[in-house]
Amino acid sequence: MDAHLHVITPSHRQAALGPSLAPPPKLQSVSLIATLACIAFLNTFNSGTLTVALPAIAADLEIPPSLLLWPASVYALALSCTLLLLGAIADVVGNRPVFLIGCVLNCGWTLAVALAQTSNQLIVFRTLQGVSMAFCMPTAVSTITNTFPSGKPRNFAFASFGAGSPIGFASGLVLGGLLAQAAGWRTAYYLAAGANAVAFVLAYFTLPRIAPPVSNIRHALVHEFDWVGVASASSSLALLSYIFAQISFSGSTMRAPHNIALVVIGGLLLPFFVFWEGRQERLGRPAILPNSIWRQREFTAVCVTVFLVWAWFNAFGYWATLFFQDTQGLDSLNAALRFLPMVIVGLLTNIVAGVVVDKIPAGILVLVSGLISASGPLLYALQEPGWTYWAAGFPGMCLGVISTDLLFNIANLVITTQFPSRRQALAGGVFNTVTQLGNSIGTAVTAMIAASVTEAEMHGGNGVEAASATLKGYRSAFWACFAAAVISIVTSSVGLRKAGKVGAKKDV
């Protein structure tokens, strides 16, 4: 195992990714893709179920208002701060054992969520769910890039993997809502645990059985692993994610002395990480994410674009839910049903992505899809509460998701190309870390904006009613989402203009 990660130039990318891969047999390919898509499905199914069933869960477990949003937040927090660590470990010990361990753990903790009797138990089990999913997501990306040859096979594998997310979220919203009313919210998590058990069985028989990437795993983990870099990056991400989650609940919590201290510590760890990675690279020692990789235009542009798009898209979904329920007075199930067009369009977008990423330059695809999707939050910022769903809600849902699902495929192809074959799980960890960080920050920032606008309206001396002030706060959040979408369009237009057709087959 090399001492550090070399930056891959275009002329050496194929060599770094290894020799040409022979596509696996058709049955094995279908089974493997189904297994990986099932994990992506479960990742969002649990979140969708929690979104729609949270009122029922809160009533059953007597969750206090101060902890109401933590079952969702701790999952994202635990996932985001362990992705780099587990991705890097998987590159040492191999994808198969790490993925299988993740499946077992996720099955167990999902079952534990279904059996939780108190709010504290639920929060702890959701945290452990996030950690277990961090075993699976980076290794899924690595399995795709190291199993399917570049070109159409890999494009469709990523498209199918990406399609699991919108289907999972939709199923969680609909089934979670129905089951919460008919059979109880726990039934949805029992089903998820069962599906996870099936995924484990499929993974056991379909994941490639290959020798570990290194001959001496213990020596590699002790002497050839950037533990300081991983620890500083993970700690910083954990602290900052926690702070952003706190801000999402109430901006006033930032005045607490312990939160101020955590912000300072998390902020200082970031420059330390940059310093440490530069030092490691300069001395030829192991570096989890060497600074030189950020000089690759496409890599940096994709990471920034992914961060911005996932920030505004996740926030857009959050505020759309509140708009449906608080402003238009819909119950949770009817609000969830209004997200179905987004899911269907997202699924179709992944199918289209598998077809076009090897035919159309990435810069054009991201630019056009970004312009289309920016109209989603724009429509919601302009709509009135009395408008029918078909006037703005429906087209906003359909258009807003296109750039996210198309970018999922493009970003995975670009990021994995920048890493050699032996570091593909780390590449998957980088992508998923950027998305999770975008999710956390997007919700937190828009929550601060909405809260400040609502408060200003309420105390401005203009006699504004609470409902009107709240609506203006929601609109300000949608405008913030639109602004982030525009910035992402500019970033991708500049950074990816020379990226070419990222899904094209690479010749050796």
UniProtKB/TrEMBL annotation:
Protein name in UniProt: Major facilitator superfamily domain-containing protein
InterPro entries: MFS, MFS_dom, MFS_trans_sf, Tet-R_TetA/multi-R_MdtG-like
This protein's record includes keyword Transmembrane: yes
Organism of this sequence: Microdochium trichocladiopsis
Cellular component, GO, one term: membrane
Domain Major facilitator superfamily (MFS) profile: 32-500
Residue intervals passing through the bilayer: 30-57, 69-90, 97-117, 123-144, 156-182, 188-207, 227-247, 259-278, 299-319, 339-357, 364-383, 389-414, 426-451, 477-496
Pfam family, one: MFS_1
